[in-house]
Amino acid sequence: MTAQEFFKNDRFATNAGVELIEIKEGYSKARLVITAEHLNAGGRTQGGAIFTLADLALAAAANSHGSLAFSLSSNITFLRASGPGDTLYAEARERYIGRSTGCYQIDITNQNGDLIATFESSVFRKDQKVPFTL
Questions:
Q1: Which of 29, 61, 65, 109 has its CA at 20 to 30 Å from residue 18's CA atom?
Q2: What is the helix (H) or strand (E) element at residue 27, kind and residue range?
Q3: Hey, how many other C-beta atoms are within 10 angstroms of the C-beta on 24?
């Protein structure tokens, strides 16, 4: 099984429209095309949609080493609004990897490269192999 196939089992992110477009060790990139279903009452992208995009990018990068990893803590800072017709990208980069923990920085940008949000997360790696290869 490939990593792409494995993460399609993340039904919430898949149903939200999040697509993983690149995965390598300690790194991933995901995309979300913003539609009316992603909007809040103010007509802007709902924060939960942006969090979901960043969270799937985190999962792919953190699990890329072959051990099952789960988020311990995540923090998002929203910097700029987005809305219908925008395409958002989340790029996850590993900042630290220890024996059982890791730290990741995820930048969320739009199709113009404008920074929309930043997302930081720490993860815990279980002593369990993931069922995919890169």
A1: 65
A2: strand 27-33
A3: 12
